[in-house]
Design a protein that fits this description.
The complex is a heterodimer. By secondary structure, chain A is of the alpha+beta class. Chain A has 4 helices and 9 strands; from the N terminus they run ααααβββββββββ. Chain B is mostly helical. In chain B, helix 2 crosses helix 5 and helix 3 crosses helix 4. The chains are: A alpha+beta, B mainly alpha.
């Protein structure tokens, strides 16, 4: 039996069988009619007793949309069921052939949807990772630069210290060389006079030699094998002249060290040299035992 | 309003939309599939679809609730067809109806309860043969030809009964439809 269908009838049947092809462009009246019957269909399930879903369904759904869980299979590429299409004059079409779709397997559309979602997330994740890495690199470089600057400053301080020490050492060496040069000039001068110093104690190995320049002012004394002074005592050099004894200086040799004394002045009329053991830092007049004494004569070399 | 917020990717809006419509949609999916597990799966798929495709909603063509109903119906029927057990499920669906799904208190607001009573009352007022073809078309997704074949009726008779049922419902539910527009 064939039924003559009005436009309204076709709209109703199209609404019931909606879900496939695009309808012909409807007129405004058709749109209104289609909307009315679409809403009728929307009301039909209101007859059913509502059923409360298990709470975990909602929890899982919200976890997924918040990104806590991966999508189980959102078919974003699937043809969306449409509200009732409007049919103007097209014959009634049979129901669209359903596309077989495995219910438990993940179809390609799901995969595409998940891929699309991943594609949208990956650039953000990559950018965030790069920003974090760049920040970490900047921080690391900043710390490294600070450490290097600290190291450089420390090295500069050490270099300054060493340079000062070297300069002091060089200055000391230059002074020593100058003294050696002066002393060498003195002891090698043709008019130098020499007087050996001998120990008062015959058992002692100590000895010395005094060089006096021709001007009778510059002198140089070298003492060998003089034992270290006892605690609280020092050796003291005395010039023996007509007017008495004058201190030539206080010294205390280390064990086995050679003592060198020199000066540019000597009391006038000096005729002998004596070294005594005196209280520490010396005295104005000799009080201790004599240790070394010159022979009382000066030899001309 | 809620759908606009869903479009702005606000999970709370989806949660509110879920609270408002999930009981009806789950009942629909259960009615079509006669399986609680599958029905809840469909329900979750529907709301994920809404989350990802809210921009595709056309307010000029349907209300939000109808859009959700049609998505749920389409997906549930697709699932049903895919199993190719339409007859068995049809039987189970009737058994399920007999067993009933008591909704917990508080799930259904007074507004929805009244609407449900009106729709159920109007559907019950339809002659059984009209209600039957309407249910076969709506809940089972059968075409007019398939209904004719299954019911052993001429195609023209099926179409006439369907059209009469739809037109009666449109007239009877005018106030509800107006609220949805």
């Amino acid at each position: 039996m064939n039924v003559d269908l009005s436009p309204e009838d076709r709209t109703i049947l199209a609404a019931l069988e909606a879900g496939g092809d695009e309808p012909p462009m409807p007129t405004e009246a058709d749109e209104t009619l289609a909307r009315l019957y679409t809403e009728v269909l929307g009301l039909v399930p209101c007859e059913l007793e509502p059923a409360a879903p298990r709470p975990e369904i909602k929890s899982r759904l919200l976890s997924i949309v918040r990104g806590d869980e991966t999508l189980p299979g959102d078919e974003t590429q699937e043809m969306e069921p449409r509200p009732a299409p409007v049919v103007v004059s097209a014959p009634v079409r049979p129901a669209p052939v359903p596309v077989p779709r495995p219910s438990r397997e993940v179809p390609a559309a799901r995969g595409m949807a998940m891929s699309a979602r991943r594609r949208s997330v990956w650039p953000m994740a990559l950018a965030a990772t790069l920003i974090l890495a760049l920040g970490a690199l900047c921080g690391w470089l900043f710390l490294r630069q600070a450490r290097m600057e600290e190291t450089i400053a420390s090295l500069e301080r050490a270099m300054d210290t060493q340079r000062q020490e070297a300069e002091q050492s060089v200055a000391g060496m230059q002074a020593a060389m100058e003294r050696m040069r002066v002393n060498f000039a003195l002891v090698t001068a043709p008019a130098v006079k020499v007087s050996p110093l001998r120990p008062v104690d015959p058992q002692s190995q100590a000895r010395g030699i005094l060089f006096v320049a021709a001007d009778n002012q510059h002198w140089y004394l070298a003492v060998h094998e003089l034992p270290p002074a006892p605690p609280g005592r020092d050796y003291q050099l005395w010039w023996v002249a007509q007017e008495g004894r004058f201190s030539g200086g206080v010294f205390d040799p280390g064990a086995g060290e050679k003592v060198e004394l020199y000066s540019e002045t000597m009391p006038a009329g000096t005729r002998d040299v004596v070294i005594t053991l005196e209280p520490a830092r010396g005295v104005s007049k000799p009080t201790g035992p004599e240790v070394l004494r010159a022979a009382g004569v000066f030899y001309q070399l | 309003m809620l759908l606009r917020q869903v479009l702005e990717r606000r999970p709370q809006a989806l949660a509110d939309l879920y609270d408002r419509h999930a009981p009806t949609l789950l009942a629909l999916a259960r009615r079509i599939l006669a399986g609680a597990s599958d029905a809840e799966e469909i329900l979750q798929e529907v709301f994920l679809h809404v989350w990802n495709n809210a921009a595709r909603y056309d307010a000029g063509r349907s209300s939000v609730s109808t859009w959700l109903v049609l998505i749920t119906r389409s997906r549930a029927i697709d699932r049903l067809r895919n199993r190719k057990v339409v007859e068995r499920v049809h039987e189970a669906a009737h058994q399920e109806d007999r067993a009933g799904h008591a909704s917990p208190e508080g799930v259904e607001s007074v507004f929805f309860r009244e609407r449900r009573q009106r729709v159920k009352s109007e559907l019950d007022k339809l002659p059984p043969e009209q209600k039957q073809v309407l249910e076969m078309a709506f809940y089972e997704g059968l075409s007019q030809s398939e209904i004719a074949e299954r019911a052993g009726l001429p195609l023209g008779t099926v179409k006439t009964r369907t059209l009469l049922a739809m037109k009666k419902l449109r007239g009877a539910l005018r106030s509800d439809i107006r609220e949805l527009l």
